[in-house]
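User: My collaborator sent over this chain with a note saying "see what the structure looks like." That's all I know about it. Can you take a look?
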Amino acid sequence: MREKIILVCTECLSRNYTTTKNKQTSKERLELNRYCSTCNKHTLHKESK
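Assistant: Without extra context I'll predict from the sequence alone. Here is the result:
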């Protein structure tokens, strides 16, 4: 069972990406380096609540 999650930029706090993850196998929050169009650079994006 995969659930939709939203990734938020840690610098400007904009909600840029949506993705899915399996909550049964990965309990911790997802963290990815993605491109932020607001910051115009690659930044760390974390899973929102």
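A starting point for your reply to your collaborator: Residues 2-47 form a domain with the Rubrerythrin, domain 2 fold (CATH 2.20.28.120).
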